[in-house]
Amino acid sequence: HVPHPLKLPDGMLAPGAQALMIHWWNERASLIPPQGPTIAWALDTSRRMRHSLRLIAQYIQANSTCKEIQAVGGITAHVALGKADGGRVMLEHLGFVVIPYYRPLGAFGEFFENFYTWWVIWTFNPASTRRRSMFNLQRTEFWMSRRAFLERYGQE
Fold it and tell me: Which residue has the higher pLDDT, 91 or 136?
């Protein structure tokens, strides 16, 4: 369920609206090369993300249990607000609205969320931890209405 009011380009969602939450699996992401991100890596990542979003749209359209879903979104620690950030630009290019993270557990809870997140990143994609520490992870949310998501990624 949506944890707080969401203002999206095509309307407002109230807290409690049903949502499908996307979880990007770090262990299934393209590994960042030892020399750092490259254009080839970025293109492969973009291709994989679009493919996954199309599969999610197909699932939503094919399953009657998804009729009540009003938004598609998630939470990520890979995107920073307020500065040039390739992850934020990519999510916006994919059609998502990127907003600050709603911290249901407060700063103390976010510390433990970041500790776990950084540990998983370090375990499965250690090259991506070179430029970030556990203490500078910034969580953000990304959202799109069901209608906009299916228009963009669903079957015509």
Answer: 91
Rounded alpha-carbon distances, angstroms, from residue 16 to 3, 31, 115? 6, 36, 28
Q: What is the pLDDT of residue 58?
A: 96
pLDDT in tens, 14-36: 999 999 999 876 666 777 777 87
* φ, ψ at 115 (rounded to 5°): -60, -50
Instruction: For residue 18, give every residue at least 6 positions away whose Cβ sits within 8 Å of its Cβ, in sequence order, or none.
Output: 1, 2, 68, 69, 70, 71
How high does pLDDT run on average in the chain?
A: 82
- CA distances (Å), origin 137, targets 11, 79, 154: 30, 9, 32
- The neighbouring-strand residues paired with 71 are 19, 145
pTM of the predicted model as reported, rounded to 2 decimal places = 0.77
Give the list of residues 6+ apart from residue 103 with CB closer than 8 angstroms, or none.
Answer: 109, 110, 139
Query: Could you tell me where the beta strands, DSSP code E, fall in 17-139?
Result: 19-22, 71-76, 97-100
Give the residue among 81, 80, 50 at the shortest CA–CA distance from 149: 50
61 contacts 150 by C-beta, under 8 angstroms: yes
